[in-house]
Write a structure and sequence with these properties.
Elements: E1 9-17, H1 24-36, E2 42-51, H2 57-67, E3 71-76, H3 81-92, E4 97-100, H4 110-122, E5 126-130, E6 137-139, H5 143-159, E7 173-176, H6 177-180, H7 192-202, E8 207-211, E9 213-215, H8 217-221, H9 229-246, H10 248-274, H11 278-282, H12 288-302, H13 304-341
Parallel strand pairs: 1-2, 1-4, 2-3, 5-8, 6-9
Antiparallel strand pairs: 4-7, 5-7
Amino acid sequence: MSEATDRRKLVTVIAPAYNEAGVLARNLGTLVAHLRGLEDRWRWELLVVNDGSTDDSGKIADAFAADHPGVRVIHHPVNMNLGQALRTGFAHARGDWIVVLDVDLSYEPSHIETLVGTLEATRAHVVVASPYMKGGQVTNVPFARLLLSRWANRFLAYFCHHIDLHTITGMVRGYDRRFLRRLNLKSMSVDINTEIVYKAMLLRGRVVEIPAHLDWTLQRQAGVGRMSSFRILRGIATYILSGFTFRPFMFFFLPGLVLALASVYIMGWIFWNVGDYWSAASMVETGVEHRLSEAVRLLYEQRPHAFMVGGVTMIASLQLMSLGFLAFQSKRNFEELFHLGSPTEGHGDLDGPDAP
């Protein structure tokens, strides 16, 4: 049956690879065997993006593709990080649906049919595989990685308030290709995953989350797992910046609110303690205004730091809150510009890929 007469949808599976020579041929074989078992429902292609590997990953992928129709390999001359690898895969994908899967198979190939089936059943634009939602599962993930990932996703979920997601940083997802190409992605690193969620929110895309199983048994057996302090710090910085992208207003307003409350407390303490010096002031000055001034002067001589700290915190709180409102306005302007600048091709995609 020719592609022109075959009415089955085409699924593109994108598998970024960087220095995976030890497991690449075996895992690609597992993926192809699984995809062949789905041919009664969908046509498929497997797109391997070799992200500038310095080992034999590129040669292994090319040899595998030569023996397996439906497998294509795209090479980056140098390592360009996950964001560019995914953008390259998205640009070369031909499928109606796109699934991104780790080539290390930390998520089993069975997630492919679950993701694509959910795309079809719910007419969603993005389907997220989540090991952290109810029904999800995590196995043998190193403690440092798991702790960082869980708290990063909880942190981002607070700022990603328009949709209810438990896993925002995960790479394993399913996409409606036409909608995905409207997002105009720019990220070069792991933050591409949060960028996708953010821009899907801006376009009012339907984002659905399904339970998934993240299993690091094979990685632990291969001795993979320990994260360097630099990678941990870089990951924390990336997630904080991603949260800022979602709701920059809160990064200014919340600290400003805390300082404002501290300033109110200090000023209240000052006025409360002025009364203690009122009697002493009445012995020197007459008239309410003069007595009040003298009482404040006496308190200032005893507690000058209270006046300085109260004044500084008040000024800082006003500045931070002002920056928060400016950030909110700037974000709204960006959202308007993003809508105006989004490709108009396939505008009806928000009704789903099979909409009339």
